[in-house]
C-alpha cells in the first residue's frame, strides 16, 4: 500500500512539474529533474499561494522591495567595485548553479536562506544593510552574464520563493534578455522584474556588454499564516543546505559539501560516455533503478 502511495505521489509530482506553464522540458529530462522531486512541496506552495499562477508578477505589489530600486545606484557601485569577486565557484561546491558556470555565468553571494555571508558584509556593506531591512528577501547575489553567454531552458526547484531581478549594469538592449514561459524581458539599468522561476526559463546575452544584476529570492506570500510559517521553515531548514561560499569565511551547506563527491561520480560517468555511450546508458539506468528500488523496497517489507 505504501509503495503504491509513493509511486502515485511521484507520478503526480512529475505531471505537475512537466505541465506547469505553456513551455515544457522533454519528459525524459523532467523525469529526473530536481523540480520533480520537490513537486509535492511545490504543489503546496502554489496551491496556498496568494499569487496568481502567472510567469511574471507586478513589482508594485511588493512595496517592501521599493528601497532596492530606489538605491539601485548605490548597489551598482558596490557591485562594480567587487566585480573581480563575481565569479564561478572555485571548487565543486555550488550544486544549484554548477552547469551555469560552464556557459560563463558568474555570481557573488550576499545571503542564502540564512544570515548574510560574512564576505558580503565586509565587501558590500551598504547592499547587505538594505537587504537585511527586508525580511522577505531570503537569498541574494550579484549575478553576471558576460557577452555571448547562454543559459539553457530549465526550471528552478523551489516554488516557495519568486525571483527578483534588478538591473545594475546592463547592456540596456533587447539583445540581452530572459524568457519565462515564452514571455521575454530585457534588463535595463535601475529597472526590476519579478517572475516565477519554476516555469521553464532561459537567458541569453547577444550584446557585446556584460550584464550585472541584483538577483534575489523573495519568500512567496501565502494565503494563511500556518502556510507562511511552513514556507519560512522549509526555506530556513532545507533550502539553506544549498548555501555556497564566496571564500573560506562563508558557510557551505550540507548539499554542497556532498556535491564534490557526486560531481566526481558525474565526471567518471562523462568519461565513460565519451568511450562507450551504450555502456554509459546501461549503468545510468541501472543506477536509477537501484535508487528507485531503495526508495520503494521498505514499503514492501
UniProtKB/TrEMBL annotation:
A GO term for molecular function: dioxygenase activity
Cited Gene3D superfamilies: B-lactam Antibiotic, Isopenicillin N Synthase, Chain
All copies of domain Aspartyl/asparaginy/proline hydroxylase, residue ranges: 69-221
Keyword Transmembrane helix belongs to the record: yes
Transmembrane domains' residue ranges: 280-300
Keyword Phosphoprotein: no
Keyword annotations from UniProtKB, A to Z: Dioxygenase, Membrane, Oxidoreductase, Transmembrane, Transmembrane helix
Similarity comment: family membership: Belongs to the aspartyl/asparaginyl beta-hydroxylase family.
Name recorded for this polypeptide: Aspartyl/Asparaginyl beta-hydroxylase
Organism expressing this protein natively: Acinetobacter stercoris
Highest classification ranks of the organism: Bacteria, Pseudomonadati, Pseudomonadota, Gammaproteobacteria, Moraxellales
Amino acid at each position: 500500500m505504501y509503495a503504491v502511495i509513493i509511486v502515485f505521489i511521484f507520478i503526480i509530482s512529475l505531471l505537475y512539474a512537466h505541465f506547469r506553464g505553456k513551455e515544457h522540458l522533454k519528459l525524459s529530462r523532467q523525469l529526473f529533474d530536481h523540480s520533480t522531486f520537490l513537486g509535492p512541496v511545490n504543489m503546496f506552495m502554489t496551491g496556498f499561494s496568494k499569487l496568481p499562477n502567472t510567469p511574471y508578477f507586478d513589482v508594485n505589489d511588493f512595496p517592501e522591495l521599493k528601497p532596492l530600486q530606489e538605491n539601485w545606484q548605490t548597489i551598482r557601485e558596490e557591485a562594480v567595485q567587487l566585480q573581480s569577486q563575481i565569479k564561478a565557484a572555485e571548487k565543486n561546491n555550488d550544486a544549484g548553479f554548477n552547469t551555469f558556470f560552464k556557459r560563463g555565468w558568474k555570481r557573488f553571494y550576499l545571503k542564502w536562506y540564512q544570515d548574510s555571508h560574512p564576505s558580503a558584509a565586509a565587501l558590500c556593506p551598504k547592499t547587505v544593510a538594505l537587504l537585511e531591512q527586508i525580511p522577505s528577501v531570503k537569498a541574494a547575489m550579484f549575478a553576471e552574464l558576460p557577452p555571448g553567454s547562454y543559459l539553457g531552458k530549465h526550471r528552478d526547484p523551489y516554488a516557495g520563493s519568486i525571483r527578483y531581478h534588478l538591473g545594475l549594469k546592463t547592456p540596456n538592449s533587447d539583445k540581452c534578455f530572459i524568457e519565462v514561459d515564452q514571455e521575454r524581458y530585457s534588463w535595463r539599468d535601475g529597472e526590476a522584474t519579478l517572475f516565477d522561476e519554476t516555469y521553464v526559463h532561459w537567458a541569453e546575452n547577444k550584446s557585446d556588454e556584460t550584464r550585472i544584476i541584483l538577483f534575489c529570492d523573495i519568500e512567496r506570500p501565502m494565503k494563511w499564516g500556518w502556510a507562511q510559517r511552513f514556507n519560512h521553515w522549509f526555506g530556513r531548514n532545507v533550502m539553506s543546505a544549498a548555501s555556497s561560499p564566496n571564500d573560506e569565511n562563508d558557510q557551505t551547506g550540507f548539499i554542497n559539501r556532498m556535491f564534490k563527491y557526486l560531481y566526481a561520480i558525474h565526471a567518471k560517468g562523462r568519461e565513460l560516455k565519451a568511450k562507450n555511450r551504450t555502456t554509459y546508458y546501461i549503468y545510468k539506468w541501472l543506477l536509477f533503478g537501484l535508487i528507485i528500488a531503495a526508495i520503494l523496497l521498505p514499503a514492501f517489507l
